[in-house]
């Protein structure tokens, strides 16, 4: 079989994207569409006492103004994680700053924007809790969500012997996703049926939640997401504005579009919680872990009580006989936290920093320490991994980086004024597949149509799926059309948890192989085919041609077989969920000018074991993206919250710093690239979120190596290194 | 955004008599208007006015108010004789913004204080008398000099800091004002400009200064200063005959420390005199809860800049 998956082909939608031809949700134009603009609460806790919409309603072009008094009532899906914990504009209660309190609908966007400034909302205000420091002592362990335990014990940490102990606290601030594309909804009703153009990472979930909340049948809802300008978890759940837009459009009897402003993205989409944690390690004098305690605290709200699986790194990374992990929450008067990829990064920062501290406490090279604690089998199940090449990742990345030349002593490497530090960390993320289905159809001209209602979230899904189908079918990429982003297509799951490739490719593989075999059956049963009389398994497909195994002169083509047949051949297949875990290692170099305390990351090398690589170019892009976000996490990103008002002080990209090109060094991405026999998706595992997970710790560890200063509170801004 | 009228001025006189808000690059004004921080009934586009020239005439480098930041930064005269000016401009914003923004408007850009830019928040600068949440709030980026109990927002212009070091003046439609006298520390009245008064040029005296700019910030580019320092020294051998030291990110206006200059003037540039200048510069600083580090960072910036500038070992 010719290998097409893995080739670094350009994105199929690349030209459309760079020329502006690609239409994103907010670009979608429908004749007669009305524009809605949200009015957001300016307090974090309290009640609306009055809301005067008179001036707004009489402003030019305004169709209507909706508040909690006249917004249609919606039904809240009673369980996480499909929506936020409450639907706003259903009553007068304010649960957080930036909560929608009104939607102004007008003929043009500008009219709606202006009129939104005329809505006069009065509140009775209570003093909010804004940050974890204000609610110390109120932490509790919530009920498990997402099938992950919030408290986990292995062995007995209290009686574990230890020659060396590390016990430290780590913290990181609230983060926001900041996708280029802000969230948008366009609702079009016709004959009681809704078409919702959405910025959604899971169009099937959006469809289900919309139907439930609006009280219509799921079959009466169609959700479409042609392209997504980044999601990073912010578009995983169905946000309140989506439900409100659809409900109001139904009342108005006209299409309605609502596009969130950048500022609204800071209060509407969830965020990575402020995070505090204690990590305590016990080890033998040669660095073999005997116990691991990790206690994390993240933020809940009065309406959202969700944790984001930070226990997994502690449970899975190393062979630790005694383990106690507890993840707590404490409620704030802030929007509930949400998926922010990878949610494992914050906990990973504490764990992988503590491992570096342990390395120095026992005097063992940080990489060697990890090898001494290598998990040969799944630490949870004690079962062998279906494949695991983390050791290869360590070796590949260390060699490329030149790690063996590292001198252990902090502050020992200088270049002129600058201190140079090298740090590393293990990287890892779950590799799940969610139940998904796909259709593969061979057309009478020998081309292939494949469909699945997954979504292109900017990672290259469209391209990778097209490649996968070409390989599965033994045809060329040009012969394949893959369609996604429409909930009327065969059901697929979220583009979340780095699960898309493993979920959807598995379904495509199952359907595609059935179609291929059925077409081969047509050929071998047809006296006009040179392959006539062969068994199905004696025929191979490549480049759109069918060959007799071992005799390539006996050949037919999809085009010829299908034109003789005269009808399409199609199969829809469904695949179940599967577990998995993807690992890697990242090594970074920092340079620090001691006069200013500013940290620059000057090199980064990552090596990964994602099973089979599906596209070397898009996989490398994910490494660049993940490491870049990790640099932001380590050095600059923070959502600043006023502690008195629980209001965000920097809800925009001029105040919330993310890395710019000049902050991003040369990044080298290496792949083991060996198929995982446990993966039903051509041997590929989930990958996208892996490359960020270890970066904050690796950078912090490098800063320690450069300066001897251990910074346990992120971000590492220059004031912390003066 | 509220509806507004728009007109193009065909002459300085027409602009001045228009009673509207002048716009050139609009890189700050449009954001302020969209965010509701400012609101104007009439926008007067002055881009058609002949105020873009950059030339030396006699003892003065004259920069038209409508010259774009990128044009000034790359101008050979500026790069040769006024490196601090070119460096400060290139350290500002992004290439796209530098291509749009005019230097006159740059001097008048508003503070980046998050409370000022959030119209739901009290702010004495935006709504006099409403209060200043930064005093006891999120003030990591705020002033350690020149603030009071009304406002501790910092002025964001790098250009202004470098021009102040060069003892530049602002030529307006009615007068010439030294930059020393141009900026105020009042939260509401930020400059001495009167209603309708239009900046037409920036004038920089040609001197024998060696100059340099150092900007420290939380990422590599496209970010305002946490602390910046501009130095212009008249060095004869090691001897500092004259010096001007100015600072950004630390005060409601581009800040100058004559005490630090006095500590250098007439002395040999040495580690000791540099240290004396650094400690003189921060005398009287009033740090707040989250910005105390700026007191240390300013001194380090002075030391780094002067050490490099004077090749002090």
Quick overview:
The complex is a heterodimer of chains A (722) and B (313). With 722 residues, chain A is α+β, with helices and mostly antiparallel strands. Chain A contains 16 helices and 27 strands.
What key attributes describe this structure?
heterodimer, A: 722 residues, B: alpha+beta, five-stranded antiparallel beta sheet, 20% strand, globular
Protein architecture, described:
The complex is a heterodimer of chains A (722) and B (313). Chain A is α+β, with helices and mostly antiparallel strands. In chain A, 24% of the residues lie in helices and 26% in strands. In chain A, a hairpin with a 2-residue loop joins strand 22 (545-548) and strand 23. Chain A is globular. By secondary structure, chain B is of the alpha+beta class. Chain B has 13 helices and twelve strands. In chain B, the strands form three sheets. In chain B, strands 4-5-8-6-7 form a five-stranded antiparallel beta sheet. The longest helix of chain B has 17 residues, at 293-309. Chain B is globular, with a radius of gyration of 19 Å.
